[in-house]
Amino acid sequence: PEAILVSELANRMAERVADVVKSLMQMGMMVTQNQTIDADTAELIIEEFGHKVTRVSDSDVEDVIKEIEDKEEDLKSRPPVITIMGHVDHGKTSILDAIRNARVVAGEAGGITQHIGAYQVKTESGTVLSFLDTPGHAAFTSMRSRGAQVTDIVILVVAADDSVMPQTIEAINHAKAANVPMIVAINKCDKPAADPMKVRAELLQHEVIVEAMSGEVQDVEVSAHTGQGLEELLEAIALQAEILELKANPARAAQGAVIEAQLDVGRGPVATVLVQTGTLRQGDIFVVGEQYGKVRALINDKGERVEEAGPSVPVEVLGLNGTPEAGDVLNVTETDAQAREIAEYREQAAKDKRAAAGAATTLEQLMQKA
Ligand code: GTP
Ligand code: MG
C-alpha cells in the first residue's frame, strides 16, 4: 500500500502507537494515530524501530498466489461447469428451472427453492454437472474481463418458434472467442409453430454445424414446459464433458471465482464462489479481489452447511471483510497477513489507477479549454 494508518503501522510492527506518533513528531510530522502517512515516511519509521521493510508489489502477489504446476497423478476428474446462453425469452431460465426441478430428489421438502446462483445435478448415468445460473453474457463478459474463465460448456438455447436472433449470434461469438464447446438446445418444441429444422439451417449460416446437419455440435430438441428432451440434454452434456477430460487437483490450496456477492443484513458480506481448483475449507484464510477473510461457514446449493468444497463445486462463503465483485478470483493464502496485504495492495492499485484516469481527464479538459 502507498499509504498506511499510523495505528495500523504500529500494530504491524507490534509497537505502541504512542511511540510511533512520538517518533513521527520528532521527524516533524504532527499526526494522530487515525491519520495516514505515505509509504516513504512509513519506511523511515519502520527502520527507526529496527524492523525490516517489505513492500508488497505485483510480483509478491504473484508469488503468493502463483500457478502451481500440478503433478499428473494429483489431477482428478471434476464436474463440468455449464452456462446457458441465448436470445431473450428463448427459455434459458425455464430450462435451468426444469432441469433443477426434475432432478430434485423426491421427498426433499422445498427442494426447489434455490439458494445460490449455481447448482449441481446428477444425470441418470451418474455424472455430476455444475450449472451457473447467471446471465450467460455476464458470465462471459465481466468474468472474463476479470480473468476468471469459469465455463467449460455453453448451452445455446434457441426457441424453435423464433429461430436464430441477434443475441443467439452474440452468444455464438462469445463461445467461439472463449473456445468453449457448445451444445444447442432447440427449445419450445411443444409449440405448434416450432420448426427445429429452420433453427438448424440458420445456425449453419453462422458456422454452427449441428449433428443433425452432419456436423459436430450436439443438438437436442427440448421443451422446458413438457420436459421433453431434458434427460437427453443432460446426457449430451455428460458426453461433451467426457471428451473434455476436465481435471483439477483437489489437494492444493483452493482457487475459485466469485459468481455473485452481496451484503447480507444478517450475515454480512456473502459471496457465491465456484471452486475451480483445490479444496476450500472452513477456517481457510483467503484473498478475493480487494477483499480478504477467513471462511466462517460454507453453504452448498441446497442451503446446507458443508465443511469443504472441491473443484467445480459452487458454495456460499461467509467470513469476508467486504463485498467482492462477480468475477473476482479467490485464493487461499497461508497467512492472514498475506491475504490482507494482497487485498490492500490491490485496493490501492485500483485507487491509483482511478486517480491516474481522473488526472488524465482533467488534463485533457484543461487542454481543450486552452
Ligand atoms: P430472459 O432471461 O428474459 O432472456 O428469458 P429466458 O431466456 O430466461 O426465457 P424464460 O425462461 O423466461 O422464458 C420466456 C418465456 O417463454 C416464458 O413465458 C416461458 O414460460 C416460455 N417458455 C420457456 N420455455 C418454454 C417451452 O419449452 N415451451 C413453451 N411453450 N414456452 C416456453
Ligand atoms: Mg431468464
Automatic annotation (TrEMBL):
Q: Indicate which residues the UniProt annotation says bind GTP.
A: 86-93, 133-137, 187-190
Keyword Protein biosynthesis applies: yes
Gene Ontology molecular function terms on file? GTP binding; GTPase activity; translation initiation factor activity
Q: Where in the cell is it found?
A: Cytoplasm
**Annotated signal peptide:** none
Q: Which UniProt keywords apply?
A: Cytoplasm, GTP-binding, Initiation factor, Nucleotide-binding, Protein biosynthesis
GO CC annotations? cytosol
Residue ranges of the Tr-type G domain? 77-245
Its annotated function is as follows: One of the essential components for the initiation of protein synthesis. Protects formylmethionyl-tRNA from spontaneous hydrolysis and promotes its binding to the 30S ribosomal subunits. Also involved in the hydrolysis of GTP during the formation of the 70S ribosomal complex.
Q: Which family does it belong to?
A: Belongs to the TRAFAC class translation factor GTPase superfamily. Classic translation factor GTPase family. IF-2 subfamily.
Mind telling me what this protein is named? Translation initiation factor IF-2
Q: Which organism is it from?
A: Epibacterium ulvae
Designated gene of the protein: infB
Span within the full-length protein is: 253 to 622 of 832
